[in-house]
Amino acid sequence: MKAFVTGGTGYTGGALCTRLAEQGHQVRALARKTSKTDQLRDRGIEIIFGDVRDIDSLRPAMKDVDVLFHLAALYRQAGFPEHIYHDIHIKGTENMLQVALEEGVKRFIHCSTIGVLGHISNPPANEETPYNPGDIYQITKMEGEKLALRYFREKNLPVTVIRPAAIYGPGDMRMLKLFRSIAKGRFVILGSGETTYHQVYIDDLITGFLLGAEKDVAIGQIYIIGGEEYVTLNQLTTMIAHDLGVSPPKLHLPVKPFQWLGPLVESVCIPLRIEPPIHRRRVDFFTKSRAFDISRAKRDLGYQPQYDLKTGIHLTAQWYRERGYLN
What we know:
By secondary structure, this protein is of the alpha/beta class. It has a domain at 2-172 and 198-228 and 291-306: 3-Layer(aba) Sandwich (Rossmann fold), CATH 3.40.50.720. The protein has 12 helices and 12 strands. It has helices spanning 11-22, 38-42, 55-58, 82-103, 136-155, 176-183, 202-214, 233-244, 256-269, 280-287, 295-301, 309-322, and strands at 2-6, 26-31, 46-49, 67-70, 107-111, 159-164, 166-168, 189-190, 196-201, 222-225, 230-232, 252-253. Strand 1, helix 1 (11-22) and strand 2 (26-31) form a beta-alpha-beta unit. The longest helix has 22 residues, at 82-103. It is globular and about 55 Å long. It comes from Candidatus Hakubella thermalkaliphila.
Protein backbone atom coordinates (compact mmCIF):
# COMPACT_ATOMS: atom_id res chain seq x y z
CA MET A 1 0.00 0.00 0.00
CA LYS A 2 0.95 3.66 -0.24
CA ALA A 3 1.11 4.99 3.31
CA PHE A 4 1.39 8.58 4.49
CA VAL A 5 2.52 9.33 8.05
CA THR A 6 2.35 12.65 9.87
CA GLY A 7 4.65 12.93 12.87
CA GLY A 8 7.08 10.60 11.09
CA THR A 9 10.13 12.36 12.53
CA GLY A 10 8.93 11.66 16.08
CA TYR A 11 9.56 8.56 18.15
CA THR A 12 6.34 6.70 17.39
CA GLY A 13 5.98 7.99 13.85
CA GLY A 14 9.55 6.99 13.04
CA ALA A 15 8.94 3.46 14.34
CA LEU A 16 5.76 3.23 12.27
CA CYS A 17 7.52 4.43 9.10
CA THR A 18 10.29 1.88 9.69
CA ARG A 19 7.86 -1.03 10.11
CA LEU A 20 5.89 -0.02 7.04
CA ALA A 21 9.05 0.23 4.95
CA GLU A 22 10.29 -3.15 6.24
CA GLN A 23 7.00 -4.70 5.12
CA GLY A 24 7.54 -3.39 1.61
CA HIS A 25 5.00 -0.58 1.59
CA GLN A 26 5.62 2.75 -0.12
CA VAL A 27 5.96 5.25 2.71
CA ARG A 28 5.70 9.01 2.63
CA ALA A 29 6.26 11.17 5.73
CA LEU A 30 5.32 14.76 6.42
CA ALA A 31 8.12 16.82 7.97
CA ARG A 32 8.86 20.42 8.70
CA LYS A 33 11.97 21.86 7.06
CA THR A 34 13.65 22.14 10.47
CA SER A 35 13.17 18.43 11.25
CA LYS A 36 15.90 15.82 11.03
CA THR A 37 14.99 13.44 8.23
CA ASP A 38 18.26 11.60 7.46
CA GLN A 39 17.23 8.36 9.18
CA LEU A 40 13.92 8.24 7.36
CA ARG A 41 15.57 8.90 4.01
CA ASP A 42 18.09 6.14 4.70
CA ARG A 43 15.15 3.73 5.06
CA GLY A 44 13.79 4.71 1.64
CA ILE A 45 10.99 6.88 3.00
CA GLU A 46 9.85 9.80 0.86
CA ILE A 47 9.87 13.13 2.70
CA ILE A 48 7.26 15.77 1.96
CA PHE A 49 7.90 19.11 3.63
CA GLY A 50 4.82 20.73 5.08
CA ASP A 51 2.81 21.44 8.20
CA VAL A 52 -0.58 20.16 9.34
CA ARG A 53 -1.52 23.79 9.98
CA ASP A 54 -0.95 24.66 6.29
CA ILE A 55 -3.63 22.91 4.27
CA ASP A 56 -2.03 23.78 0.94
CA SER A 57 1.13 21.89 1.92
CA LEU A 58 -0.92 18.75 2.58
CA ARG A 59 -2.53 18.28 -0.82
CA PRO A 60 0.61 17.13 -2.70
CA ALA A 61 1.45 14.81 0.21
CA MET A 62 -1.87 12.97 -0.01
CA LYS A 63 -1.95 12.28 -3.74
CA ASP A 64 -2.65 8.58 -4.41
CA VAL A 65 -2.41 7.65 -0.69
CA ASP A 66 -4.15 4.46 0.44
CA VAL A 67 -3.73 4.72 4.21
CA LEU A 68 -3.03 7.84 6.22
CA PHE A 69 -1.63 7.60 9.75
CA HIS A 70 -2.12 10.92 11.52
CA LEU A 71 0.31 10.98 14.45
CA ALA A 72 1.50 14.61 14.44
CA ALA A 73 1.03 16.20 17.85
CA LEU A 74 2.51 18.66 20.31
CA TYR A 75 3.24 16.77 23.50
CA ARG A 76 2.70 18.53 26.81
CA GLN A 77 5.54 20.79 27.75
CA ALA A 78 5.77 24.12 29.44
CA GLY A 79 6.23 27.31 27.46
CA PHE A 80 3.76 26.77 24.62
CA PRO A 81 0.67 29.00 24.55
CA GLU A 82 -2.65 27.21 24.44
CA HIS A 83 -3.47 28.31 20.90
CA ILE A 84 -0.55 26.21 19.56
CA TYR A 85 -2.20 23.06 20.91
CA HIS A 86 -5.46 24.16 19.32
CA ASP A 87 -3.81 24.89 15.97
CA ILE A 88 -2.06 21.51 15.78
CA HIS A 89 -4.51 19.11 17.42
CA ILE A 90 -7.79 20.60 16.22
CA LYS A 91 -7.23 22.79 13.18
CA GLY A 92 -4.37 20.60 11.96
CA THR A 93 -6.51 17.48 12.29
CA GLU A 94 -9.39 19.16 10.46
CA ASN A 95 -7.02 20.06 7.62
CA MET A 96 -5.85 16.45 7.41
CA LEU A 97 -9.41 15.13 7.40
CA GLN A 98 -10.56 17.58 4.74
CA VAL A 99 -7.71 16.83 2.34
CA ALA A 100 -8.05 13.08 2.95
CA LEU A 101 -11.70 13.37 1.98
CA GLU A 102 -10.87 15.39 -1.14
CA GLU A 103 -8.18 12.93 -2.22
CA GLY A 104 -10.19 9.79 -1.58
CA VAL A 105 -7.88 8.31 1.05
CA LYS A 106 -9.08 4.77 1.74
CA ARG A 107 -8.28 4.63 5.47
CA PHE A 108 -7.59 7.39 8.00
CA ILE A 109 -5.91 6.17 11.21
CA HIS A 110 -6.10 8.90 13.82
CA CYS A 111 -3.74 8.73 16.80
CA SER A 112 -5.43 10.05 19.92
CA THR A 113 -4.40 9.34 23.54
CA ILE A 114 -5.75 7.62 26.62
CA GLY A 115 -5.35 11.06 28.21
CA VAL A 116 -8.73 12.09 26.79
CA LEU A 117 -10.22 10.03 29.62
CA GLY A 118 -8.20 11.83 32.29
CA HIS A 119 -8.02 10.30 35.77
CA ILE A 120 -9.52 6.81 35.93
CA SER A 121 -11.36 6.68 39.25
CA ASN A 122 -12.95 3.26 38.63
CA PRO A 123 -10.38 1.21 36.72
CA PRO A 124 -10.11 -0.21 34.22
CA ALA A 125 -11.61 2.25 31.74
CA ASN A 126 -12.62 1.26 28.23
CA GLU A 127 -13.62 2.95 24.98
CA GLU A 128 -17.10 3.73 26.37
CA THR A 129 -15.78 5.61 29.40
CA PRO A 130 -16.84 9.29 29.22
CA TYR A 131 -14.31 11.91 28.21
CA ASN A 132 -12.62 13.62 31.14
CA PRO A 133 -9.57 15.57 29.90
CA GLY A 134 -7.49 17.36 32.50
CA ASP A 135 -5.23 19.81 30.64
CA ILE A 136 -4.89 21.68 27.35
CA TYR A 137 -3.08 18.79 25.66
CA GLN A 138 -5.83 16.32 26.56
CA ILE A 139 -8.63 18.77 25.80
CA THR A 140 -7.37 19.53 22.29
CA LYS A 141 -6.60 15.87 21.59
CA MET A 142 -10.18 15.07 22.60
CA GLU A 143 -11.52 17.67 20.17
CA GLY A 144 -9.31 16.29 17.40
CA GLU A 145 -10.62 12.79 18.08
CA LYS A 146 -14.20 14.01 18.00
CA LEU A 147 -13.56 15.71 14.67
CA ALA A 148 -12.19 12.51 13.17
CA LEU A 149 -15.24 10.53 14.29
CA ARG A 150 -17.55 13.24 12.98
CA TYR A 151 -15.97 12.95 9.52
CA PHE A 152 -16.76 9.24 9.65
CA ARG A 153 -20.38 9.72 10.73
CA GLU A 154 -21.24 12.71 8.55
CA LYS A 155 -18.94 12.35 5.52
CA ASN A 156 -18.25 8.60 5.39
CA LEU A 157 -14.49 9.02 5.67
CA PRO A 158 -13.19 5.60 6.82
CA VAL A 159 -11.68 6.67 10.14
CA THR A 160 -10.26 4.55 12.96
CA VAL A 161 -9.15 6.12 16.25
CA ILE A 162 -6.23 4.60 18.15
CA ARG A 163 -5.68 5.64 21.77
CA PRO A 164 -2.18 4.54 22.86
CA ALA A 165 -1.33 3.97 26.51
CA ALA A 166 1.94 5.51 27.78
CA ILE A 167 4.47 4.71 25.06
CA TYR A 168 7.92 3.39 25.93
CA GLY A 169 10.75 1.28 24.56
CA PRO A 170 14.26 1.56 23.15
CA GLY A 171 14.77 5.00 21.65
CA ASP A 172 12.19 6.72 23.84
CA MET A 173 13.62 9.69 25.72
CA ARG A 174 10.58 10.72 27.74
CA MET A 175 11.02 7.88 30.24
CA LEU A 176 14.77 8.46 30.55
CA LYS A 177 14.45 10.86 33.48
CA LEU A 178 12.53 8.23 35.48
CA PHE A 179 15.06 5.47 34.74
CA ARG A 180 18.05 7.72 35.41
CA SER A 181 16.74 9.08 38.72
CA ILE A 182 15.98 5.54 39.92
CA ALA A 183 19.44 4.39 38.80
CA LYS A 184 21.03 7.18 40.83
CA GLY A 185 18.82 6.58 43.88
CA ARG A 186 17.25 10.03 43.59
CA PHE A 187 13.68 9.22 42.67
CA VAL A 188 11.07 10.50 45.12
CA ILE A 189 7.47 9.34 45.02
CA LEU A 190 4.82 11.98 45.70
CA GLY A 191 1.90 10.56 47.63
CA SER A 192 1.23 6.89 48.24
CA GLY A 193 2.49 5.56 44.91
CA GLU A 194 -0.66 3.47 44.60
CA THR A 195 -2.00 5.25 41.54
CA THR A 196 -1.96 3.04 38.44
CA TYR A 197 0.06 3.42 35.25
CA HIS A 198 -0.56 1.67 31.94
CA GLN A 199 2.12 1.45 29.25
CA VAL A 200 2.48 0.05 25.77
CA TYR A 201 5.75 -1.15 24.28
CA ILE A 202 6.54 0.61 21.02
CA ASP A 203 6.51 -2.54 18.86
CA ASP A 204 3.11 -3.56 20.20
CA LEU A 205 1.70 -0.10 19.51
CA ILE A 206 2.91 -0.17 15.89
CA THR A 207 1.21 -3.55 15.50
CA GLY A 208 -1.98 -1.96 16.83
CA PHE A 209 -1.81 0.83 14.24
CA LEU A 210 -1.32 -1.65 11.41
CA LEU A 211 -4.16 -3.89 12.57
CA GLY A 212 -6.40 -0.84 12.73
CA ALA A 213 -5.52 -0.08 9.11
CA GLU A 214 -6.07 -3.65 7.90
CA LYS A 215 -9.34 -4.67 9.54
CA ASP A 216 -12.61 -3.46 8.03
CA VAL A 217 -14.33 -3.92 11.40
CA ALA A 218 -12.14 -1.10 12.74
CA ILE A 219 -13.76 1.58 10.58
CA GLY A 220 -15.63 4.07 12.75
CA GLN A 221 -14.27 2.55 15.96
CA ILE A 222 -12.02 3.63 18.83
CA TYR A 223 -9.37 1.25 20.17
CA ILE A 224 -7.25 1.50 23.30
CA ILE A 225 -3.86 -0.06 22.58
CA GLY A 226 -1.92 -0.93 25.73
CA GLY A 227 0.16 -3.61 27.34
CA GLU A 228 -1.34 -6.67 28.95
CA GLU A 229 -1.05 -5.25 32.46
CA TYR A 230 -1.18 -2.02 34.39
CA VAL A 231 0.67 -1.53 37.66
CA THR A 232 0.94 0.90 40.54
CA LEU A 233 3.75 3.44 40.52
CA ASN A 234 5.29 1.59 43.46
CA GLN A 235 5.33 -1.60 41.40
CA LEU A 236 6.65 0.14 38.30
CA THR A 237 9.54 1.85 40.07
CA THR A 238 10.41 -1.37 41.88
CA MET A 239 10.51 -3.28 38.57
CA ILE A 240 12.79 -0.66 37.04
CA ALA A 241 15.06 -0.64 40.11
CA HIS A 242 15.40 -4.42 40.09
CA ASP A 243 16.34 -4.42 36.41
CA LEU A 244 18.94 -1.72 37.07
CA GLY A 245 20.31 -3.58 40.09
CA VAL A 246 19.57 -0.80 42.58
CA SER A 247 17.31 -0.43 45.61
CA PRO A 248 13.70 0.56 44.89
CA PRO A 249 12.69 4.13 45.79
CA LYS A 250 11.52 4.35 49.38
CA LEU A 251 11.10 8.08 50.00
CA HIS A 252 7.53 9.37 49.78
CA LEU A 253 6.60 13.01 50.16
CA PRO A 254 3.15 14.58 50.59
CA VAL A 255 1.70 15.53 47.22
CA LYS A 256 -0.39 18.53 48.30
CA PRO A 257 2.47 21.07 48.57
CA PHE A 258 3.62 20.17 45.05
CA GLN A 259 0.11 20.53 43.68
CA TRP A 260 0.09 24.03 45.10
CA LEU A 261 3.63 24.86 43.97
CA GLY A 262 3.24 23.58 40.39
CA PRO A 263 1.07 26.41 39.00
CA LEU A 264 3.08 29.00 40.95
CA VAL A 265 6.42 27.80 39.57
CA GLU A 266 4.98 27.64 36.06
CA SER A 267 3.70 31.21 36.31
CA VAL A 268 7.22 32.41 37.12
CA CYS A 269 9.26 30.21 34.76
CA ILE A 270 7.16 30.13 31.60
CA PRO A 271 7.27 33.87 30.84
CA LEU A 272 11.07 33.65 31.23
CA ARG A 273 11.18 30.63 28.86
CA ILE A 274 12.63 28.45 31.61
CA GLU A 275 11.56 24.81 31.93
CA PRO A 276 9.85 24.66 35.37
CA PRO A 277 11.46 22.19 37.80
CA ILE A 278 7.96 21.53 39.18
CA HIS A 279 4.82 21.74 37.12
CA ARG A 280 1.34 20.33 37.03
CA ARG A 281 1.81 17.56 34.49
CA ARG A 282 4.66 16.04 36.51
CA VAL A 283 2.55 16.10 39.65
CA ASP A 284 -0.29 14.50 37.67
CA PHE A 285 1.99 11.50 37.07
CA PHE A 286 1.73 10.72 40.80
CA THR A 287 -1.93 11.57 41.35
CA LYS A 288 -3.91 10.43 38.30
CA SER A 289 -4.53 6.75 37.66
CA ARG A 290 -4.22 5.23 34.19
CA ALA A 291 -5.66 1.72 33.84
CA PHE A 292 -7.42 0.35 30.77
CA ASP A 293 -9.26 -2.61 29.31
CA ILE A 294 -7.81 -3.62 25.92
CA SER A 295 -10.31 -6.38 25.22
CA ARG A 296 -12.02 -4.55 22.32
CA ALA A 297 -8.73 -4.40 20.38
CA LYS A 298 -8.13 -8.07 21.13
CA ARG A 299 -11.62 -9.09 20.01
CA ASP A 300 -11.96 -6.95 16.88
CA LEU A 301 -8.38 -6.65 15.66
CA GLY A 302 -6.75 -9.79 16.98
CA TYR A 303 -4.36 -7.53 18.89
CA GLN A 304 -2.17 -9.37 21.39
CA PRO A 305 0.73 -7.63 23.17
CA GLN A 306 3.98 -9.48 22.59
CA TYR A 307 6.02 -7.68 25.25
CA ASP A 308 5.21 -8.03 28.94
CA LEU A 309 6.17 -5.12 31.16
CA LYS A 310 9.22 -6.81 32.67
CA THR A 311 10.67 -7.56 29.23
CA GLY A 312 9.87 -4.08 27.94
CA ILE A 313 11.54 -2.44 30.92
CA HIS A 314 14.62 -4.61 30.46
CA LEU A 315 14.95 -3.78 26.76
CA THR A 316 14.45 -0.08 27.41
CA ALA A 317 16.97 0.00 30.28
CA GLN A 318 19.46 -1.94 28.16
CA TRP A 319 19.16 0.66 25.39
CA TYR A 320 19.74 3.51 27.86
CA ARG A 321 22.64 1.67 29.48
CA GLU A 322 24.43 0.91 26.22
CA ARG A 323 24.39 4.60 25.32
CA GLY A 324 25.59 5.82 28.69
CA TYR A 325 22.35 7.63 29.49
CA LEU A 326 22.10 6.20 33.02
CA ASN A 327 25.53 7.41 34.18
